[in-house]
Write a sequence for this structure.
């Protein structure tokens, strides 16, 4: 698939469409990709945070399953264009926001990914630090902890430098490691707690429906927000798909099943920690530090490091690298974009985002979902309702084409995005409207999508923006 005419400010080798002959990812690759990305410490902490917040085990699992089934819908809708045209997210979003305006949603998505990169790197650094303290108790000091963090950061950067094929290799080995550590934790701690019976018998702390819903609603939004990032940039992966069927079935099988199964491990282990230690320990790194067997704990922490590295690079580097490259394709390659991601990830201070389960779920996940839900609303409304799933591939890579709009920016898309974000986050400043924030992703998605369609249909040249 060649683009006959392209503008060098909009095109480089990393952003170019992937020809069908070069697409090698099948159903197994997408299913394993989701297993590799789902079976990770943030998934575990997502589930354990719900238990720490007062849910019973079945309430926590049900919330996670429902959230992932919901986010699977926009995931598959946005995946379609990637598989059909072989284009990455920052190129796809040019159709709705304009060839220059696309940088707005791309940078929003990239900044959230940078935050996730920092979080995963912080978790990996803490795992190295915990392992050192087990094997060498004299190493315990804040300075060593920071050195471990930056050492793991450097390892991530080295993998980024090697490129996309390294990511594909890592995904095949990361998930088994992470499943192994999860099962090891489950076996060890449930044995100590007297089996699964006592562990899963703990009741919900919510004694009425109102109290439960107050916690459930923002938690569900957080579950959707967890993958709201990849729901936008999934074309970065589906552009390598052999067929639509392969990517759709691979994702539909991989995402909800992998997330729910691994979340169950997080739920069970955290419930068991409450039985054993009198309080739920939601951080598995802290929990592993309580192992009495140094060899077992060290092996588990090494497995955790490999899996965290895999998830971090696949889920949190591919997209922002492409997004930053889209800002200036001539100067910023995939590698350079990855380096920018690494630096910004540190600047976002992940140690504060992970200070407790409340900051993680209700601050980080719900907060950024109010930024990304509106982007998804505009993208999906544009592709399916305005353009009927038809794009002009050539015009996505050149100026003065049908995606030029007003000097490269579709002001209607920007307006719809701003309205959606403002309304979704309004509950942060107006307490009676708190429910808008609790439903941030849903509110932003619906408002921005509806406003965008209304504005596009009001313009006089609808046929000129149809992509035909």
């Amino acid at each position: 698939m060649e683009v006959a005419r392209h503008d060098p400010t909009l095109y480089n080798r990393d952003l170019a469409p992937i020809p069908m002959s070069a697409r090698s990812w099948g159903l197994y690759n997408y299913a394993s990709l989701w297993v590799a990305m789902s079976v990770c410490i943030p998934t575990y902490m997502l589930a354990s945070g719900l238990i720490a917040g007062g849910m019973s085990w079945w309430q926590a699992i049900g919330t996670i399953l429902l959230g992932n089934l919901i986010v699977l819908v926009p995931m598959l809708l946005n995946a379609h264009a990637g598989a059909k045209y072989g284009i990455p997210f920052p190129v796809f979003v040019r159709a709705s926001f304009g060839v220059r305006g696309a940088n707005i949603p791309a940078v929003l998505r990239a900044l959230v990914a940078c935050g996730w990169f920092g979080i995963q790197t912080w978790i990996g650094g803490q795992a190295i630090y915990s392992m050192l303290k087990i094997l060498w108790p004299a190493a315990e000091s804040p300075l060593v902890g920071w050195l471990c963090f930056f050492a793991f950061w450097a390892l991530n950067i080295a993998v980024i430098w090697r490129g996309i094929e390294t990511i594909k290799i890592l995904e095949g080995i990361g998930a088994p490691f992470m499943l192994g550590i999860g099962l090891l934790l489950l076996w060890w701690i449930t044995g100590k707690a007297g089996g699964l019976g006592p562990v899963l018998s703990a009741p919900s702390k919510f004694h009425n429906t109102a109290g439960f819903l107050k916690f459930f609603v923002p938690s569900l939004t957080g579950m959707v927000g967890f993958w709201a990032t990849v729901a936008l940039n999934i074309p970065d992966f589906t552009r390598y798909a052999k067929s639509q069927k392969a990517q759709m079935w691979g994702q539909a099988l991989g995402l909800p099943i992998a997330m729910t199964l691994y979340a169950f491990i997080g739920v069970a282990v955290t419930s068991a920690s409450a039985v054993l230690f009198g309080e739920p320990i939601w951080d598995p790194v802290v929990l592993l530090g309580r192992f009495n067997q140094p060899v077992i704990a060290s092996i588990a922490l090494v497995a955790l490091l490999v899996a965290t590295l895999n998830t971090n690079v696949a889920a949190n580097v591919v997209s922002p690298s492409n997004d930053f490259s889209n800002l200036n394709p001539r100067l910023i390659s995939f590698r350079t974009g990855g380096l920018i991601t690494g630096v910004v990830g540190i600047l976002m201070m992940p140690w504060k985002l992970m200070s407790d389960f409340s900051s993680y779920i209700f601050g980080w996940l719900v907060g950024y979902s109010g930024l990304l839900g509106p982007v998804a609303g505009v993208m999906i409304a544009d592709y399916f309702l305005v353009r009927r799933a038809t794009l002009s591939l050539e015009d996505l890579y050149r100026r003065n084409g049908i995606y030029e709009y007003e000097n490269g920016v579709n002001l209607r898309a920007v307006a719809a995005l701003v309205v959606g974000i403002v309304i979704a986050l309004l509950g942060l400043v107006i307490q009676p409207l708190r429910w808008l924030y609790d439903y941030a992703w849903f509110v932003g998605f619906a408002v921005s999508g509806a406003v965008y369609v209304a504005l596009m249909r009001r313009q006089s040249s609808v046929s000129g923006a149809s992509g035909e």
